[in-house]
Amino acid sequence: MEASSSKATVVGRLQAAKHKSGKSFSQIAHETGLTNVYVAQLLKRQAQLKPDTAPKLRAVLPDLPEDLLSEMMKPPMRSYDPNLIQEPTVYRLNEAVMHFGESIKEIINEEFGDGIMSAIDFYCSVDKVKGVDGKDRVVLTFDGKYLPYTEQKLEHMVSGLHLHGEK
Known about the structure:
Elements (H helix, E strand, L loop, with lengths): L3 H18 L3 H8 L3 H8 L10 H7 L5 H7 L15 H25 L2 E16 L5 E13 L9 H6 L4
Antiparallel strand pairs: 1-2
Helix pairs in contact: 2-3
């Protein structure tokens, strides 16, 4: 498990390698076949770099040292700073989800049934488009696997079967 000061040091070094490359998250994403948000997550140590992707990332960020690549392939400590909500972009994103959340939930239930969107089997991207008025607009895409809630029948609960002497 990464200590917070050690994680901050690693993240600082990862961000320095990105900065030195002169490439944006979207450029790195395009060259590695990842989403731009996933690239940002990798460079914040919020996602694990897979071995098949490491050579692609190394090619895009040639100044990325081997010790950082190795560190990136370890399962990260996924966390966030509670003060992050004070950052205006994060605050507005949270506000939008809270404002539209109930309606989004109802549409998910109507379209899929009783369930939720996974944040594990999940893709996220940020894109820039022009609106009908010609002004820049932000497009956030949340693409998560649908997970239906399960009716909890004892006959399907493996631990329950073992606890009650059934096999």
